[in-house]
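Worked example (supplementary).
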Amino acid sequence: MDHINLALGIIFQLCQSLLVVALAPLLTGWVGQCRAWLQNRTGPGLLQPYRTLHKLFLKDALLADNASPLFRVTPYILFGCMWLAAAIIPIIAIDLPFSQAADVIALVGVFALARVFIALAAMDIGTSFGSMGARREMLVSFLAEPALLMVFFASSLISHSTQLPHIVETFSHHAFVLYPSLAFASIAFLMILLAENARIPVDNPSTHLELTMIHEAMILEYSARHLALVEWAVSLKLFAYISIGIALFFPYGIAEVGNWGALPLAIVALLLKLTAAGAGLAGLETILAKMRIFRVPEFLGTAFLLAVLGLLIHFLLGA
Amino acid sequence: MNEISVLPIDVAGGIILLWIALGLIGLALQRSPSMICRLVFPLGAALALLLAATGLWALAETPNIAVLPLGLPDLPLHLRLDPLSAFFLILLGGTAFGVSLYSAGYFKTMAGGMLGLLSLEYHLFLASMALVILADDAYMFMVAWESMALSSYFLVTTDHKIPDIRRAGFLYLLIAHVGAIAILLSFGVMQAGHGIAAYTFDAMRATPLSSFWSSVAFLLALFGFGAKAGVLPMHVWLPEAHPAAPSPVSALMSGVMLKTAIYGFLRVTFDLLDVHLWWWGVLVLALGLLTAVFGVIFAAVQGDMKRLLAYSSIENIGLLLVGIGLTIIFHVYGKNALAALSLTATLYHSLNHAFFKSLLFIGTGSILHATGERNMGRLGGLIRRMPWVAVTLLIGVLSIAGLPPFNGFISEWLLLQAFLLSPGLPNTHINMLIPVAAAVIALAAALAAYVMVKFYGIIFLGQFREPGLADAHDAGWWERLGLVWLASACIVLGLAPVYVVQKLDFVTKMLLGQGLGNSTSGWLFVAPVDIERASYSPVYFLLAVLGVMSVTAWVVHHYYHGRVSRVPAWDCGFPAQTARMQDTAEGFGQPIRRLFEPFFKIEREMPSPFDVHPRYHGQSDDKIWFFLYLPIKLMVQSLSSWTSLIQHGRIHVYLLYTFVTLIVLLAFV
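After joint prediction of all chains, the assembly is encoded as:
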């Protein structure tokens, strides 16, 4: 019985991996479409990211004269890391065998690995915008990363585990119990999500003004398939972050261990949650204004303090 | 029947003697520098590898003891090889192997006479570090400790004709000796007035001390070993001495010598003292956090690559102290499984830091040889000219930034797990300190990534900042061997944590009576407590990322195409790109300097918009130097000027003093 469950788990793991990589651009398309609607535009439609990816893959790649192998290999590393991150977060069923290889601390490490590589690749060509983007990205991340870790710590302390399946299992059983520490953590997480995915108010994903760019400044030199992989990885990153939010704060409806019959319902629940999250993100981005780069540390410092406060509350109240 | 059994300690002793002999041979061979490079250093490297193997062998053995027929009358020298010493011998041997191989290539351009001396000091330095680790009495320990300090002083001042280097060497020697006095006093307290017979460590273990005297001994040891390790506020010598020394020497000092201080501190705290108090742990934890944050913030604003690495060493020493502090706290409250976890994290991180920091330091040596430049603002683009150095250093940079699946991540992971398991300590104040400490550790680790992106990006990536860099040459073969050895060690330590943790169990069992034991699950997963709580498998992780990468590459190239053409950089259509438009080292660190302004003493010289020859100058200094060290220096100066009132340098005045003293003494008798 155990073997059958393990085999089913592995099959399911593969299915979820394929599902996230296929769905991620759709989520990005949905957020873009919602933004367009909120701005009284028609919008390009839900499938626009797929069309863009296809177009980019068809084009010939242009590389700067002095680009090193590091620059060429980075899109693949980025894509691999983000796919791995999105694949190990339990959003449909709790049973994900690969989650044992990388717990939440390793998940933060995966994001950090991808970030360091993209920052290095941005500095590789030696343009002024590239190194500016790398510097700003590292500035944003050195506060966002520990804050994310603290959010994970708050949930790990409640569930006595750093493994995502166990965390989600604990939370999905305790239906609608409000943990004070998690309340702080969830606000912090929302702020981190905005910052780490280069969304307004920290960065603007659709900016055309180089001097305000953070993420876009780093990938200015990429083209064709390299750019396509970077864009896809960015979609996967957004998908992974929203998945983390769902897994930590709204796991209800997820299929329990061994209960494969609950899968269809779980998939419907997931789609509803993703739709709501994407619309919410677009709404937030519409009502917020982008802030100056030197206000960003204050914003993220607040997120970090909130997360630490959540942790402290757990240590004091035990909840 | 006449079986001669060789013990690990005999082998280790033999290696130490051979190292000293090799040093002397090097001195004798000073007429032929090429012989020193091709013979003495590679042989020294082989001995180092043998020492590491001996350590590995001794880890599982019962402690070996040797009493040498040397020393003062009635004070023979004692050596002892137990699991703790064995672990640090592995660290020493493994690191020294790579650094010695590298030195064989690095020093080949040095003049013969200087090289002979250097090889003597180098091998004496290695031998004395091994003796520090093996010493089993206070006398032996102090002799080895002092010869380590002296030999490294002479190594630091190799280029003694430069006044700045002499100054750096003096500062190092001064702080080393202030620390040594504290260590000596600490041993004196532990000897507890039992006379000369109690100078062995065995006697100290057997001497029960009251908690007051234990605390005195502990604080003295913390001060003494902290001075050597670079703990705040005794860190000032590190950023001066490391850039001054030749790169292989900086590698050994930062990678291994700082760890001998950690070794000594562990030896005193967990082996020699049997009373432990909770506030010791809190003190060490707080000092460690301060040191870590201070080190990494200062590393972020440095322009000199070796100074940057020196500050990063300070940060890592801080992390080690945090681990030790946690261990003490858990040990005091009887949670020995957790204590074993945080001690394992500490030891693992010592090993990791030894390898990646030596790797980075010898890498800077190759860059220095190829370009003659330590200032990162004049480097850039070297990945195109020095691929061997660039690739090995990339591994080092990823390791030190604590990224999976490299080795730095695992020790960080273990340490964070220890924090996560800590709730439920009976002391509310500590319970509140722990989450704040975890947050600070996470912040320091994230800043370390910032520092390392700066280090690697400014030196190796982008355009050549100076025209001469286009002719930079890659490292030679010996140097490549050293670089590759240390880089592979980082990878292996990152991929085989289960094996390492099992070996570390011998040390934690010896110090705390408990190891992590069989809580690891299989050879692929590290799971310090149990697999339900936390697990991590670097091998699967690496396979998954590599698998996805290669499948993606294949799919993209197969279903689309792999066409690529080379064009000038785009840069938003800006045509006049020059190398000076890239971030400098100062520019990259500017956000950190702005955010953490209160930490620095900043001097800025801003040109006005109307200057004909605008000149920008900015300098960030360490406030501690001005608040702590300068007042001490002024005090010493004024004290010595007081003594000049009675010191006239005339013989009859001194005779008068002697006469008066005798009269006064006679009056008492």
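Two points are worth noting when inspecting this output. The longest strand of chain B covers residues 64-72. Residues 277-554+583-599+621-630 of chain B form one domain.
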